[in-house]
């Protein structure tokens, strides 16, 4: 019953877009058809190319207007495409406009938007009015025609037909709204290659910022921690040297104490250096993911079953990304899921690496809810990877990371 209500409900923005979108659709469609027609007529004259170039710039402007209308009324996010290049020189700039794929895609959108606009207006205005006429047909017929009229099958069938068509109005508007969203995302947004470049630029900028932060943190830890330990070790060794120097002979008790202290300080410094270098390149990865992942799951407080099928070894960069992804996901299982058991599955073959972590916890994991998944998705995107999350409330949670084996 809930799904039926959802299907039959229409937001106010969808009604408004169907009604007010018709004038804009007529304007845009007429503009695009006029440009194509006039451009074809002028193509053999010296005015043809300049006319088309100016018209394409106008199409971009209309595309911006349509994109904002779709975003505001249909609640569909459509990213703005890149601006056209502006090389030096009038001829070069005209060539850039004429070869601008965004402008040509916008022109195609304006042509296709015309029938959708007419259909939307018909579904939102003409169809309800027609349904009202059908429902009230027995009354209208008798009001318009003087004298008695016999009751016919048309009198009985027209209200039923009107009610059936009226019940289809919300679904028609929702369907046309979905078509308008899809068309706007397809033709008014950045091209697939441009969108991918943007995503990679954003991911690499995020990764660079994180690496810079890690480098500064490592520098601070070396300065404040390891360097201080080495200074303390040097002081201890200096005191031990002084204990060997007295004329009466070395103070063996004091010397033994200082040597023990120096040994402890050396062990602490080595442990500190191991902790710091572990974040740069985990030593466990020297033997590949087949050795590193079981060792990682062994340290998890939640029991983790491991299944590996690593037919080929990925690049070192990809291995590091998979390793840190597994570490982050297992940490989330221990901290946030409330799970009693988990499973880690990794396979590499056919040029792809897939890492899947399942748990029987409470579910509800999603990007941007404080579990670090958004940052993890950005780091994976930097190596052309994707993160998929399936975590309904109540669980179970299944998170899959997929990356190429070669970068």
Automatic annotation (TrEMBL):
Enzyme class: transferase
Domain Histidine kinase/HSP90-like ATPase: 319-406
Organism per entry: Streptomyces musisoli
Entry keywords, A to Z: ATP-binding, Kinase, Membrane, Nucleotide-binding, Phosphoprotein, Transferase, Transmembrane, Transmembrane helix, Two-component regulatory system
Reactions mediated catalytically: ATP + protein L-histidine = ADP + protein N-phospho-L-histidine
Entries under PANTHER family matching the protein: NITRATE/NITRITE SENSOR PROTEIN NARX-RELATED, NITRATE_NITRITE SENSOR PROTEIN NARQ
Domain of life: Bacteria
Lineage, highest ranks first: Bacteria, Bacillati, Actinomycetota, Actinomycetes, Kitasatosporales
UniProt entry tagged with the keyword Membrane: yes
Record domain Putative sensor: where: 18-188
Name this protein carries in UniProt: histidine kinase
Transmembrane regions listed in the UniProt entry: 12-34, 40-59, 114-136, 156-176
Known EC number: 2.7.13.3
Record has Nucleotide-binding as a keyword: yes
Pfam families documented for this protein: HATPase_c, HisKA_3, Sensor
Domain Signal transduction histidine kinase subgroup 3 dimerisation and phosphoacceptor, first and last residues per copy: 216-285
